[in-house]
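Run log // design_07
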């Protein structure tokens, strides 16, 4: 399950993706726009900065901005940076694999095989979705729901 840290981080990233090129925004503005506790968002943006997704600048004209264009940032990478592996169980993880101590035959474990399929489905979506595509989803959904009459 996506944690609040992951959810708030994605909301902040989508907000940053909507800024004009070269623009920066302060934490307080993002926090207020999305009803995120400012102190928590400070920590999240620090993690995103350390992972190379955002840049920050202090002082006048400072704030946060994306470190790369939104079309180059994959959502799966952001989620992993904030929440860790996508797999629901360590034995189904590609990046943080750890065998279960209570499993006698991992290759025949139906729970592991099911969770591996879940992990692969989640990764298939998140690793192929860019931040720009995610930012455009509400507009695409609204356009798809329009009905035209002639």
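design_07 sequence
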């Amino acid at each position: 399950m996506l944690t609040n840290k992951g959810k708030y981080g994605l909301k902040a990233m989508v907000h940053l993706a909507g800024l004009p090129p070269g623009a920066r925004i302060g934490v307080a503005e993002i926090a207020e726009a999305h009803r995120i506790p400012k102190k928590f968002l400070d920590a999240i943006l620090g993690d995103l900065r350390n992972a190379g997704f955002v840049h920050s600048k202090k002082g006048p004209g400072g704030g946060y901005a994306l470190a790369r264009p939104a079309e180059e940032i994959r959502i799966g990478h952001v989620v992993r940076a904030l929440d860790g592996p996508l797999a629901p169980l360590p034995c189904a993880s590609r990046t943080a694999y750890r065998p279960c101590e209570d499993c006698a035959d991992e290759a025949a474990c139906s729970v592991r095989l099911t969770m591996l399929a879940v992990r692969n489905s989640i990764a298939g979506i998140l690793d192929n979705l860019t931040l720009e595509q995610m930012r455009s989803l509400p507009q695409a959904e609204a356009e798809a729901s329009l009905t035209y009459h002639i």
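The longest helix spans residues 110-126.
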